[in-house]
């Protein structure tokens, strides 16, 4: 690509009441309570497209967060990622109201057989004319495994083995089953497709069996743009092999550690025969933008007042599989040396501001630390510094929706556009065209090995 | 219900090139080649809603028709239900462009785990404000079973046992998991839902395991309106137990046999403790409507000229699991006495016009016999006679789309409205409100047994 490396922008959301910044759904200026209606989603998509965002990124979970205090009660009371509806079904309505915006959605390899899922992917990619990305996840909530017939959550290693085979089946269906010129659409002779160019895949693996062929004809991207967010060893290796876009969630004060992750995954990708330009890295950030810094700080203070520590700890506990509710909130931080939960707490402590004393303070500091607060100019500066350090784009977390995105779109985007860092319009073509300059996965990607 | 029994109208379509009337996709006046775009679907939904149709009914298959000549070649060449995309993903865009139209979509119990599928159902029912119907099918194509990891198609009996348990899991999730007043949305106290009123289902059956709870909060209908189309013994019993709307496909000249099926299934339903008014029956019909009968006949003659016998036989062969391609087309009908395929051929012969001599003639006559051709008045008369014989509604098959539906909407609907047989507007509420006058399944339905 000859054009200068631009900042990629995704809005991060979820088909539920409360996504990341817990407790704010009660506010009058957020549409979180309308999540079961199409209108707020269609409105959001239009806002994002006007601001030249690359995509709306929809998170998902398929189970309850039930580690905190040993049960799901806090999550349920706080609407903390439960109830949670299917994200994919929001996309067609938003796609019909937009032309260029991409739609990344999350689907776990545990939830749907790859034959069924591949058809969902192709259908969405057709209906959006190639604007789909799939965020590949392996699930971390035990309740998800128990509700899907696995008798509990498969081990971390097994989930990644499953994921690897799941991708293999998907690639065979999406890339290998229908040849490029299989579809003729020949109305004169009455021939729609050429049977000699459509192939069964005859997959028989450890976890999946699939005869094929794929039921959908090739969509604009064939395999949609691939997102992944693993941070463990397995996760990084999986990303290095399969992902085109990697979602990293580093504490926002630790730019250096984000840069290290980027470098590490790029190095791993090289071992899989992939090139550095085959991957893009997105950092999660939660901007609170004001006309001035003072205005932004006032907004932040209001949010901090309303944030729910309980819901935030329930979220964190479920994410790491440790009951942080078992910790006495008044416990001083210096006593956390040799505990089972030391890893989690250690991570929190390292990123806490100096002077944080108790576990309660730590939990609050952790929530507060998620906000990137400032004038539009200040927030733009921070994004630019991350971008210069090697991060390609951002998944922007809302405090209120669509308000947080509107503030960013109206304040920060024009500044970044003036600096030549954010696009002023969309390039033509599919989402992969827009992000990588080509409609299909490159020949270096493992999916290409399944092409005919 | 005190209002007079009205005729229910569905448009019947499928997310593919060629649905029922094969070979017509090549015409200039049909939008079948645009099936991968949202526009023709959104346009169709608006047409149907203007004409007060009850629903768009989307068929589906999840495998190839490969019985004819022992392979899928004919199906593929003719675009005969392959490629075929996911029907559910069309609905959100159509729902956003309409207010009252219902959306029935087909999903096989073989294709998605009931935990994942139940969330799709609830999400769609939320997004459409209660306008969803699920057409429950068990699949009949061996290729579907082979592509979904069943190592082939499970036996007919096993598929219905699976279906029964699949429904049980679905009912537990949709009806039993969240109590009626579980959702509080209490912004003052910051409580979204009451954990004491949300329950795991702990299902452990022969085919499925599911801990629960359901991830979605109750949608307007909870369990969407239930369609089913089984015609076998198992199929009729299943319909009698579970279905609210039954899709019957009888030869259009055999009104009496349709009336017998209706009576038979109502009788079976009574044995399950259900009332006659709990079920509605829909007959499939393919109207060809002209300003005059002569005009309609001319249209029909054009269609007949273009219909594909090959694709039609491939369709029929796959549906019944018999290779009709093995039959010499010139074989006289009187030689079909004691053959393996006698049953299928016998059915065709019984409904063929007198004077049909060879198998080729028979195949053509079968296709031609599907059309209900006439002036708007004549077609309205036929629908009225079926309605008087006990059929409640119709799934209307297109020859060209949306043309066939437009002809019907502009010609036949106003006449039936004048006769007081078709609604002139929608009653408020969910799809079930519109069809049955209540938003939820009645207490007599087996799903009600899983409520708390």
Low-confidence stretches of chain A are: none
Which structural class do the helices and strands of chain A define?
alpha/beta
Distance between the termini of chain A: 27 Å
Assign a percent range to the helix content of chain A: 25-40%
Q: Roughly how many Å is the radius of gyration of chain A?
A: 22 Å
The main β sheet of chain A shows up as: 8 strands, parallel, barrel
Structure explained in plain terms:
- 2 copies of one chain form a homodimer.
- Helix content of chain A is 38%, strand content 14%.
- Chain A has 452 residues and is an alpha/beta fold.
- Chain A folds into 2 domains: 356 residues, TIM Barrel, CATH 3.20.20.30; 59 residues, no CATH class.
- In chain A, strands 1-2-3-4-9-10-11-13 form an 8-stranded parallel barrel, surrounded by 7 helices. In chain A, strands 5-6 form a two-stranded antiparallel sheet.
- In chain A, helix 7 packs across helix 8.
- The radius of gyration of chain A is 22 Å and the shape is globular.
- Chain A starts with 7 loop residues before the first strand and ends in a 16-residue tail after the last helix.
- In chain A, 58% of the residues are buried.
- The model of chain A has no long low-confidence stretch (mean pLDDT 94).
- At the A-B interface, helix 2, helix 3, helix 4, helix 5 and strand 6 of A face helix 2, helix 3, helix 4, helix 5 and strand 6 of B.
């Amino acid at each position: 690509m000859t054009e200068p490396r631009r900042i990629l922008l995704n809005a991060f959301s979820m088909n539920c009441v409360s996504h990341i910044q817990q407790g704010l759904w009660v506010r009058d200026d957020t549409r979180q309570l309308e999540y079961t209606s199409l209108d707020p989603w269609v409105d959001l998509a239009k806002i994002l497209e006007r601001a030249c965002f690359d995509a709306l990124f929809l998170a998902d979970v398929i189970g309850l967060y039930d580690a905190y205090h040993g049960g799901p009660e806090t999550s349920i009371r706080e609407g903390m990622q439960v109830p949670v509806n299917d994200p994919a079904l929001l996309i067609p309505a938003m796609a019909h109201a937009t032309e260029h915006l991409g739609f990344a959605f999350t689907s776990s390899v545990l939830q749907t057989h790859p034959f069924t899922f591949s058809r969902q992917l192709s259908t969405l990619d057709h209906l959006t004319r190639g604007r789909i990305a799939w965020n590949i996840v392996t699930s971390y909530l035990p309740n998800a495994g128990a509700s899907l017939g696995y008798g509990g959550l498969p081990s971390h290693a097994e989930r990644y083995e499953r994921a690897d085979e799941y991708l293999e089946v998907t690639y065979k269906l999406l890339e290998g089953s229908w040849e490029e010129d299989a579809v003729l659409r020949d109305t004169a002779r009455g021939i729609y497709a050429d049977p000699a160019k459509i192939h069964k895949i005859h997959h028989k693996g450890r976890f999946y069996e699939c005869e094929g062929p794929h039921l959908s004809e090739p969509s604009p991207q064939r395999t949609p743009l691939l997102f992944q967010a693993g941070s463990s060893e397995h996760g990084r290796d999986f990303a290095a092999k399969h992902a085109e876009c990697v979602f990293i969630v580093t504490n926002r004060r630790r730019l250096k550690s984000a840069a290290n992750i980027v470098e590490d995954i790029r190095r791993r990708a090289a071992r899989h025969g992939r090139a550095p330009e085959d991957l893009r890295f997105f950092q999660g950030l939660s901007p609170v933008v004001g006309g001035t810094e003072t205005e932004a700080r006032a907004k932040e203070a209001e949010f901090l007042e309303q944030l729910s520590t309980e819901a935030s700890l329930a979220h964190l506990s479920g994410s790491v599989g440790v009951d942080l509710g078992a910790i006495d909130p008044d416990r001083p931080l210096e006593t956390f040396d040799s505990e089972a939960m030391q890893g989690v707490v250690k991570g929190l402590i390292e990123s806490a501001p100096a002077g944080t004393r108790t576990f309660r303070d730590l939990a609050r500091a952790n929530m507060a630390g998620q906000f990137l607060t400032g004038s539009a100019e200040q927030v733009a500066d921070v994004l630019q510094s991350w971008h210069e350090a090697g991060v390609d784009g951002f998944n922007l977390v809302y405090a209120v929706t669509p308000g947080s995105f509107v503030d960013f779109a109206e304040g920060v985007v024009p500044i970044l556009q003036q600096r030549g860092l954010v696009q002023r319009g969309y390039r033509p073509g599919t989402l992969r065209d827009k992000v990588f300059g080509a409609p299909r996965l490159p020949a270096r990607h493992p999916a290409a090995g399944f092409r005919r």
